[in-house]
Every structure is written in structure tokens, then in C-alpha cells.
Design brief:
Helix content: over 70%
CATH topology of one domain: MetI-like fold
Largest sheet: none
Strand content: under 5%
Shape: globular
């Protein structure tokens, strides 16, 4: 197992370099960040030259990337164009989005797995049909529609929640935004679990366990559910990064000043250091989540061994 983890970590290095290089080139090759700082007014040539030299924009893109890559390993993600260090923005934004993602993951696991097991064991019955139709509706409705509707009904019309989340973003205020963020993924978790449960329920090992007289609940939890979770865990592992990166819409609706908010601000203002810095961290999150998923395979299925 240890050798496998080391091998996977080494494989992440070229993936990380290639991904961040593409992002870096895409962000810095589109438009002129210095001109974007001044809006419609043309910057003074001397001021523009000074800013380009300060942010290394006067160098070739490949050289900018090498300098950037060398700095991030020391914890220096550069400064935003307003002079604020990007690492300070990260320290403020990432804890908020992590809390939001945790709330969303809890909704996905608790509700998604419960509905998936329920419908998988009752395939073809009215409850199965109803849940399938409901999840299809959830998948079909865009997140910004669901979020705006819940914000209006629960926050503005009925006053059950605050329409906007305060800057501290405590867990209590993140329940509804977390549900909005999780809804589409929750529907997919439900459908994946249902399909896997329904397929494995007819397997020989399940019929053998039932024939031995084991309680139905133990057969479901210890045998059926455990062997049905591999596709669900795969989805949840990739969804961790998607939740943090895809929180942009939800955070904009509920005024949550997390990662999505900072990315949106950086894109609109063409604040390249902010965009590249935050996306770099998200790439690391994706890579580590995929590694964790691969390790969980061996926990769920003892037949899987890593050498």
C-alpha cells in the first residue's frame, strides 16, 4: 500500500504541472490584466510598465509560469492587483467553502444513500418510480433556478432563513445553500446507489447470505451495500472538487464570500494572480480526492490489493 501511495504521488507531479500550465497560459494569454485594472481609461505608459514589471507580465509566458511555480512551493501565490496577498484571500475563502462543501456532502451521503437503498430494494414499485421522477426533475432544473427560488421562498417571503449569509458563514446559515449545492449531485448519488443495489441484490453471495438465515438488515448493510458503494464512492470523490469549484453560482446567490466568490471577482476584474492561485489549490484538491477514492476501493472490496 505504501509503495502504491508513493507511486501515485509521483504520478501527480506531471499531472499537476500540465494542468496548472494550461490554466496559467489560458488566464494570462487572454487580454491585458494591466489595462483591465484601469477600466475604460488608458493607463499611463510608465505606470503600466511598472505594473507589468512588478507582476512579471513583461516576461514570456513560460518564464512567468516557472517563476510562479517556484514561488508557490514556498507558499507565495503572489499578490492580487490591489496589493493584497492571494494567500490571505485563500485563508478567508477556503474555510467557508470547505464548510459549505461538507454540508453538501453530508446531504448527498445521508439522503442520497438512503433513497438509493430504499428504491434499489423496491425496484419497480411506486416509491421507486416516484423517486426516479423526482431525481430527474432535480437534475433538469439549473442550480441558479433552485437557489433563487428557495432564497425567495424561505428567506424573503416566509422569513425562515436569512436571504444572505453573513461573512462569518456559520454552519447554521449554510444548511440551505449546502442543500442547493448538493441537490444535483444528490440526485445522481440516489440513482447510482439504486442501480448498484438493484444489480447486486440478485448476486449469488446475497442469496447465499439470505439462505444462511442472516437478518435482512445485516445482509443489506454488511454485504449488499458495501459491495454496491464503489461506483458511488467514485462519484463522491470527484464531486468533492466539483462542489468547491462549482460553488460559484450558489455563493453568488446567497452572498457567500468563499472560493466561488473570489473566483468570480477575479474573472470579472481579470485579476489573474487570484484566479490562477485559487484554481491551483482546486487542482490539488481534485488530485488528493482521486487518491483517497482509490484507497477506499481496498476498504470496500477486500479483493482489491495495491502493490
Amino acid at each position: 500500500m505504501g509503495r502504491y501511495v508513493i507511486r501515485r504521488l509521483l504520478q501527480m507531479i506531471p499531472v499537476f504541472i500540465g494542468t496548472t500550465l494550461i490554466i496559467f497560459v489560458m488566464v494570462y494569454a487572454v487580454g491585458d490584466p494591466v489595462n483591465a485594472m484601469f477600466g475604460d481609461r488608458a493607463p499611463d505608459p510608465a505606470t503600466a510598465a511598472q505594473l507589468r514589471a512588478e507582476f512579471n507580465l513583461d516576461k514570456p509566458v513560460w518564464q512567468q509560469y516557472v517563476l510562479y511555480l517556484g514561488n508557490i512551493f514556498t507558499g507565495d501565490f503572489g499578490n492580487a492587483f490591489n496589493g493584497q496577498p492571494v494567500i490571505e484571500l485563500m485563508r478567508t475563502a477556503f474555510p467557508i467553502t470547505v464548510r459549505l462543501a461538507i454540508v453538501a456532502i453530508v446531504f448527498e451521503i445521508v439522503i442520497g444513500l438512503t433513497l438509493g437503498v430504499l428504491t434499489g430494494l423496491r425496484r419497480g414499485r411506486p416509491v421507486d418510480t416516484s423517486v426516479l421522477m423526482l431525481t430527474l426533475v432535480v437534475i433538469s432544473v439549473p442550480t441558479f433556478v433552485t437557489g433563487t427560488l428557495l432564497q425567495f421562498l424561505l428567506g424573503v417571503k416566509w422569513g425562515w432563513i436569512q436571504p444572505a449569509v453573513t461573512p462569518e458563514a456559520p454552519i447554521g446559515q449554510l444548511i440551505v445553500p449546502g442543500l442547493v449545492l448538493a441537490l444535483v449531485s444528490l440526485a445522481y448519488v440516489t440513482r447510482l446507489t439504486r442501480t448498484s443495489i438493484a444489480e447486486n441484490a440478485r448476486a449469488d453471495y446475497v442469496r447465499t447470505a439470505v439462505a444462511k438465515g442472516l437478518p435482512r438488515s445485516r445482509v443489506t448493510v454488511r454485504h449488499l451495500l458495501r459491495n454496491s458503494l464503489i461506483p458511488v464512492v467514485t462519484f463522491l470523490g470527484t464531486d468533492v472538487g466539483n462542489l468547491m469549484a462549482g460553488a460559484l453560482v450558489t455563493e453568488r446567490i446567497f452572498n457567500i464570500q468563499g472560493v466561488g466568490f473570489q473566483l468570480w471577482q477575479g474573472i470579472v476584474r481579470q485579476n489573474s494572480p487570484t484566479v490562477v492561485g485559487f484554481v491551483t489549490i482546486l487542482v490539488i484538491v481534485f488530485l488528493l480526492a482521486n487518491l483517497l477514492v482509490d484507497l477506499l476501493y481496498a476498504v470496500l472490496d477486500p479483493r482489491i490489493r495495491y502493490g
